[in-house]
Amino acid sequence: MLSKYKDNLEKTVFFFLCVLFIYPILPHAIQSITIGLLAFFSVVTYRDIIVLNVKKYSIKPFLFITGWFIILALTLVYSSNLDEGVKRILKGMNLIIFPLLFLYILPNLSLKRKNILYDIFIYTHVFLIFFLLFKSFEGIDRLGFPDDKRGWVRNISDEGYIELIKVFISMPFSHSRYFINENEITTFFIHKAYLSIGLVWSVFLLMDRLFFQKMKKIKSLLFLFLLILFIITIIYFTSIPNIIALIVLLPIFFLLKIKGLKKRLLLIIILLISTTTLMQVNIVKERVFNDIRLKKDIGEVISLFQTIFNDQPKESANIRLDVWSCSYKQIKKSIWFGYGVGDEEQILLDCYKEINCKDCLEQNLNTHNCYASLLLAGGIFVLLLFLLALIYMFKIGLKAKNYLLLVFIVLLFINLMSENMLLRIHGVLFYVVFSSLLFSESYFKLVKQKEIV
Question: pLDDT digit string (tens) for 45-95?
């Protein structure tokens, strides 16, 4: 009777874990309820092993990966906006909860259970892709588009959805993206940067399963289709950091996973030939390299670096230059200890008024750089602790040969340069859920092998 009760509790815990992995489409309230129930049932189910796990694994790994946030919370002492600071810390409590759960409460998940969780995350992004695709169809159908005869075509779906799909495919990426009209989508949280990083991470999860685990042929074909779909979608949304991450990390991931010099050399040759060939295909040149938004984004990035490093006059209309400029100015004034968590918004607003950046003020823009945000809130000390946490997780992943963890850390590091992900619950959950799961898995492995005492 007791064993059946325990078994039901364990199934309940895993159920809430599964629900958690669809966080990209969950409302904030459901996310919070799910996390609360997961924590509660985890403690109830595994309470007998918590003290033993703390003794076995020590408090050291927990402090290494959460120390930066604990110190950040202490900056409330000198924050002038205590209410906002407390809100920020409460929002970030998941940065404490999940390392505790995965290191000391939840047992090490089996490969089968981990694959179920990863599948849920992947299929959630499949759902989001098709949701956005239908939003684009809806926009094309409702708003209309110019035809070859300089007329205006609306309600093309009356001719059948095949015609609608043909119109979508024939449009340049920049045109069809317009019809998605991301800013008016309120059904789910849709943000190019968060969607793109989720898609890139899904690509690596798919790659790991497809090429390095045994699978049934039907599922292999499905995963291959999803892999291609995700890569196309990443390019379609032209998220520069994630396109760079994909190009750089994919070959590195394969080179790490593949054993033997000959196989690695063969992979490099295949990648070079396929990339060169692909770049010569007309449709790729026209639809990808000539995409208006991609060319504009690349131009803006070049202009930003020229302005920052060569002290050239600002020619770019990219509002991020004003944001980063303000961040840099304010950081210099209190570089060691920052201004305290919660003060970032007001500090930046004061600077936006000084430089008369109306768009910055209207949109109430944050730093769009996580490292700058940490410097503003807690100074160099907090930033260094955060970087040490990433380095520590990377080191443990390298030692345990957990290449998914290595890829995750680098992918995160790249994205944090252009997006303040830890200000939003979606960014916090992406970071803390996957890092805690992969890190604990690596740490347990090293303890078992007695490489960590």
Answer: 999 999 999 999 999 999 999 999 999 999 999 988 888 889 889 989 999
Residues 274 and 314 in one domain: no
- Going by C-alpha positions, the residue among 408, 339, 412 that lies closest to residue 373 is 339
Residue 10 domain-assigned? yes
DSSP 3-state assignment of 152? strand
Residue 177 lies in a domain: yes
The Cα–Cα gap between 423 and 142 comes to 35
- Convert the pLDDT of each residue in 266-308 to its tens digit: 767 776 776 666 566 555 556 566 666 666 666 655 655 555 4
Which residues 6+ apart lie within 8 Å of 34 measured at CB?
16, 19, 20, 23, 26
Q: Is residue 434 part of a domain?
A: yes
Q: Which of 352, 374, 396 is the last residue of a domain?
A: 374
Distance between CA 341 and CA 80 in Å, rounded?
A: 9
Residues 107 and 237 in one domain: yes
Whether residue 453 is contained in a domain is answered as no
Q: How far apart are CA 220 and CA 123, in angstroms?
A: 15
Q: How far apart are CA 204 and CA 270, in angstroms?
A: 19
Task: Look up the domain containing 351 and give its range.
Answer: 294-374
